[in-house]
Design a protein that fits this description.
With 360 residues, this protein is an alpha/beta fold. It has two domains: 1-101 and 275-360, 3-Layer(aba) Sandwich (Isopropylmalate Dehydrogenase), CATH 3.40.718.10; 103-274, 3-Layer(aba) Sandwich (Isopropylmalate Dehydrogenase). It contains twelve helices and twelve strands. Helix 1 (15-32) crosses helix 11 and helix 1 packs parallel to helix 12 (343-359). The radius of gyration is 20 Å and the shape is globular. The two termini are 20 Å apart. Bound molecules: nicotinamide-adenine-dinucleotide.
């Protein structure tokens, strides 16, 4: 018996709804395997602002650092869109959380579920056999570089965002990508823009250097503009796609199209060791918040990843994933996937599935 101690940050919009479903499922998995669930719930994003706090309150950050495992819903929404810079939920909560916890490696999968292939906007032939992950550098590059606005002369304002990468930043994410490829299909595709950008030229040089220690892993390089096409037309050729922060942001959203629905894709943002933050790739979906319509599967799968990657609980994670599989094959889903269940009912169905398998 172990104690699963983590920080739960429900956030805004549908975050608390999909979070409630995931906590229900985690309780079922903990019960089945004889573990104790022990989580600290804290405010983040707009919910923290509404309570008169910063978007990332100190106690939320302290708890996240202490537990080393964070389950996050989503932050932001139109209510806080008038706020500027670090006062905004997205800039003031997500970016500092990633930076403060050194969560430099973001992983998102792209593997269309067989039950969803016909719901994706692409033809079946482009989807079958696709199974890759994007390893995105998350704490460097243009999002964290010097930025500013120059108002002089006032008739031609200019703005700038600096993109900078150090050798150490590139090396540690490349090592993570090659290590992951060894557990999968032994291939890394590194994506850059080395025909134009100096940071990309350094990126390619360091990735090639790291590759020398992984003779068993195939390495290919692709330019990011070409990759946007290759990902959709020959997605099945990829295994681990390694890229920098902004390219990864764009490519991972494109990859979500291969999966049929945003509502089924989890993500992990990892540091060294077992420190990790787990969240669905979708946002706070303000258009459906509070209506019980949100699909909780991405959040439930994120909880499974937390068990696997931060707690080393492979069987527990697999039991949750088997429950999600069964829900998808059986059509026990929310309306976005053609079902008629509410957010909580989907979680409850999966929780029951996990418990009843135990009894059987
Ligand atoms: N990591 C994060 O916290 C994060 C990520 C992305 C966007 N956001 C924020 O979320 C807010 C809304 O952003 P957006 O509308 O561009 O993206 P979104 O992902 O919230 O929603 C896009 C569309 O997908 C639908 N959708 C999303 N998740 C769903 C789910 N689980 N089930 C069913 N349908 C779902 C929404 O209803 C909407 O129509 C913004 O404030 C944005 O900044 C936060």
């Amino acid at each position: 018996m172990a104690t699963i101690k983590f920080t739960y940050l429900p956030g805004d919009g549908i975050g608390p709804e999909v979070g409630e479903a995931a906590i229900n499922v985690l309780n079922a998995a903990a019960g089945r395997f004889g573990h104790a669930l022990d989580f600290e719930e804290h405010l983040i994003g707009g919910a923290a602002i509404d309570a008169g706090l910063k978007p990332l309150p100190d106690e939320s950050l302290v708890s996240a650092r202490e537990t080393g495992a964070i389950l996050l819903g989503a932050v932001g929404g139109p209510k806080w869109d008038h706020l500027k810079g670090p006062d905004r939920p997205e800039l003031g909560a997500l970016l500092p959380l990633r930076k403060e916890l050194n969560l430099y490696a973001n992983i998102r999968p792209a593997a269309p579920h067989p039950a969803l292939i016909d719901k994706a906007p692409l033809k079946r032939e482009y989807l079958e056999g696709v199974d890759f992950v994007v390893m995105r550098e998350l704490t460097g590059g243009i999002y964290f570089g010097k930025k500013g606005m120059d108002n002089s002369p006032s008739n031609n304002i200019s703005a700038y965002d600096e993109c900078r990468y150090s050798e150490a930043e590139i090396r540690r994410i490349a090592i993570k990508a090659f290590d992951l490829a060894r557990l999968r299909k032994n291939k890394v595709t590194s994506v850059d823009k080395s025909n134009v950008l100096e940071t990309s030229r350094l990126w390619r040089k360091i990735v090639e250097d790291v590759a020398k220690d992984y003779a068993d892993v195939e390495l290919e390089h692709l330019l990011v503009d070409a990759m946007t096409m290759h990902m959709l037309t020959r997605g099945k050729d990829f295994d681990v796609i390694l890229t920098e922060n902004m390219f990864g942001d764009i490519l991972t959203d494109e990859a979500s199209v291969l999966c049929g629905s945003m509502g089924v894709i989890p993500s992990a943002s990892l540091s060294d060791g077992t420190m990790g933050m787990y969240e669905p790739i979708h946002g706070s979906a303000p258009d459906i918040a509070g209506q019980g319509k949100a699909n909780p599967l991405a959040m439930i799968l994120s909880a499974a990843w937390m068990l696997r990657l931060s707690f080393g609980m492979e069987a527990e994670a697999a039991a949750i994933e088997a429950g999600v599989d069964a829900a998808l094959y059986g059509g026990h889903t929310t309306a976005d996937l053609g079902g008629s269940l509410s957010t909580f009912e989907v979680g409850d169905w999966i929780a029951d599935h996990i418990r009843s398998n135990h009894a059987g």
